[in-house]
Amino acid sequence: MIENQFTKLFNVEYPIIQAPMAGGITTNSLVSAVSNAGGLGMIGAGYMSPEQLRSQVKELKLQTENFGVNLFVPNDFSLVEHKIQAANEALVSVQEKYKLEKNTSIPTKESFLENYFEQIKVVVEEKIPVCSFTFGVPTKSIMNDLKRAGISTVGTATTVQEAIHIEQLGMDAVVAQGYEAGGHRGSFLKDKQRSIGVMSLVPQIVDHVSIPVIAAGGIMDGRGLAASLCLGAKAVQMGTAFLVTEESGANHIHKEAILQAVEEEIVETRAFSGKYAQGIRNQYIDIMMEFEEDLPEFPIQNALTQPMRKAAAKNKDKGYMSLWAGQSPRLAKYQTVKKLIGDTIFEATKLIK
Amino acid sequence: MIENQFTKLFNVEYPIIQAPMAGGITTNSLVSAVSNAGGLGMIGAGYMSPEQLRSQVKELKLQTENFGVNLFVPNDFSLVEHKIQAANEALVSVQEKYKLEKNTSIPTKESFLENYFEQIKVVVEEKIPVCSFTFGVPTKSIMNDLKRAGISTVGTATTVQEAIHIEQLGMDAVVAQGYEAGGHRGSFLKDKQRSIGVMSLVPQIVDHVSIPVIAAGGIMDGRGLAASLCLGAKAVQMGTAFLVTEESGANHIHKEAILQAVEEEIVETRAFSGKYAQGIRNQYIDIMMEFEEDLPEFPIQNALTQPMRKAAAKNKDKGYMSLWAGQSPRLAKYQTVKKLIGDTIFEATKLIK
Prior knowledge:
The structure is a homodimer.
Chain A: H1 5-10, E1 16-18, H2 28-36, E2 41-44, H3 50-60, E3 67-72, H4 81-90, H5 92-97, H6 109-125, E4 130-134, H7 140-148, E5 152-157, H8 160-168, E6 173-177, E7 183-184, H9 198-206, E8 213-216, H10 222-230, E9 235-238, H11 240-243, H12 252-260, E10 266-269, E11 277-280, H13 283-288, H14 300-314, H15 337-351
């Protein structure tokens, strides 16, 4: 089970990727611990400036040779003034609570795209071994730049069609992101696509592509790894399980919330960022429920809620933080990365041939 | 892998249950083929009168000794006149299309309960080996009657809490019905519960009960069986895979629709029965989308749409039939039950220890 198409291609001992969770979780302490324990550590660089990314990568290279970076592919979005105003009005009570100013630095399409192109430049110049993408796929010209630099590429698919699209573009592997997955849903061909569960998504994608498929969603231990390999995946991408480890940079409140949560509390919401993402239900999500459909698109809504999320984290107020988590919180354990990876491999090896 | 807690308790060769799909699919030709191929065939008796059930069981006993029956536990419901009127108005265009009369035989709470009690009587008197329940659990007094008659009982859970509830009642096994599953969702402790994917639901339930857990949702072949056993399930319940077999009593149009469908077409709707159920999106579901939240409860809506569903089936019009299916239609194959079970076991045995 241990050596396969994925481990060879990505030069790792074990078929485990640490999901590239954006927003301060994937510190070098987490990423290097994963890579040094035989998995593939990933920097969730979606929200990073090129300078932040370059500086983290330079430091990380002192700790490990093999790691990856994940980027958000910019979507087209429109600035609908009345939606922004409505979203700001919905946030008034929260702004008053924390004595916050309205966030008026709304991202423009140009700045959004420019940041992405600069991130790509860092990836190429620093010859980062693996680059994965969420919310879309890179252009052919970017693909060529990455290939020329010897960088392995990974796409994120939520349907069979998206996986086929990723393979046809020449990417090296595809993450099959199922309904159970925490955080942002990576759909890109259709916006209002209904999510597909891992049990259905993985084998249907496996039957339609020849690049390695990486299962993601709800996988927390050796049972999940073994099950994914049975479904035809060549590796797994685990998020929540790594988020709660000792080495993770996630806020302590976030880790505690997951460790105490049950599966029924996990919901999907657009209220934090404008894109659908899965996490623990809290006061903010409940308040925003009625506005859900009318909120501005990503990344506008994300910018509007940023001051609130920062203030809430500072005040240890989990009612207004984005507590991303997958659907298996009962399986989360506070432990070291080494123990998580070691136990996962040990348990999976006992189950499958 | 083949012999375990489940196969011993349910006296079967293989850990495979054919899902008890109600509404004419589970003919004796299907049920006996499953049981005689080493699985557990089930009659979906939810909509049957006691007489229909008794007559099918008497005939089935000539073909196999081991089989089960599934019953719908009656929910409380209210007759909200304006909702019934609104639902009937929404159906007018369809009624005109097929020159149908409005269905005025709305079930009463009394008739609904009486039918259920009479079904239980048949199960006890005919000493049907296995009785499973959907939409709730039997009362303690019914449980006692079933136990005294030596009948094994199975509950349906969509959350950890529901599984614990089922175990505490003294049932022998629990179906963990995940998000991927086709047909009706069996939730009973909370009505508006968000579904949990199989990858998350099964191990979390396994960690909280000691009775055998039966995985359900999206499982179509040996990969799905092997994966479920890795997650800690002791058996699987497969619906869509059996629905499309040669022996199944499903309408030919329904089988064809599944064989041609892709995963993106599978949606959840209350429009046919008043309870959430999963199937292939069609014209009727699209028309009813806007009324979804305001439709009468089960079994009222089910009664209101029955004439339409019958007429549509007769006219081979898949736009107005309830085309229940799980999220893995691309894995469906038109084949014999024997081949389906044989291949599933062969493939799973190659994958797991």
